[in-house]
Amino acid sequence: MPDAASIKARIEAGIPGATAEVDDWTGGGDHFRATVVADAFNGLSRVAQHRLVYEIFGEEIGGPIHALSLTTQSP
Amino acid sequence: MTDPHDNPIRAAIADAISENEVILFMKGSPEAPACGFSARTVGILQSLDTRFAAVDVLPDPRIRQELSALSRWPTIPQLFVGGELVGGCDIVTEMFETGELAELLGAESTSERSEPAVADGATLQIENRLS
């Protein structure tokens, strides 16, 4: 079962220099909400920024992670 | 890699995206959304008086699978405007709050090549090809 701390760690490991804040949105271990700030987002469209995060989790999104709501920003 | 010509579902999805100026892939229908994220996205489009085609991904899991492979986007809903993925519920909400969505949709609806989207048209095409 994914938890907020492991999702935060994987985002920060997957995108060098990123900082992430992750909440378990419903407390049920499957709907998470993350705010991610990373230099890597600079100059990218929102869709491209979110893809960078989603790609870390691959098939888990829509599977064990039912939803990962994202807000992305460059610093 | 699958050749799109051998993949009628993916081809139907690609056609629906190119044939409809504004198209939303969602869970359920605009009248009866089956997921909170889809409901929120429909609500935003309706609050902007946007005409949009809607495709329910739930009747066949292959719709969602092929859509995500095509769009490189894992979640539902997915909003496309002018053939381009705008985003899911988070991005649509953010763009609604900043006014960017109204600007994007306003620009599309006044463009000369734009024709009013017929809701359900895309759904029918995809269902027909699935059978």
Give the arrangement of secondary structure elements:
The complex is a heterodimer of chains A (75) and B (131).
Chain A (H helix, E strand, L loop, with lengths): L3 H11 L4 E6 L6 E7 L8 H12 L9 E7 L2
Parallel strand pairs in A: 2-3
Antiparallel strand pairs in A: 1-2
Chain B lengths: L7 H12 L2 E5 L9 H12 L5 E4 L4 H11 L6 E4 L2 E4 L1 H10 L1 H11 L10 H10 L1
Parallel strand pairs in B: 1-2
Antiparallel strand pairs in B: 1-3, 3-4
Helix pairs in contact in B: 1-3, 1-6, 2-4
What does this entry show, briefly?
The complex is a heterodimer of chains A (75) and B (131). Chain A has 75 residues and is an alpha+beta fold.
Using brief descriptors, characterize the structure shown.
heterodimer; A: alpha+beta; GMP Synthetase, Chain A, domain 3; three-stranded mixed sheet; 3 strands; B: 131 residues; alpha+beta; Glutaredoxin; four-stranded mixed sheet; 6 helices
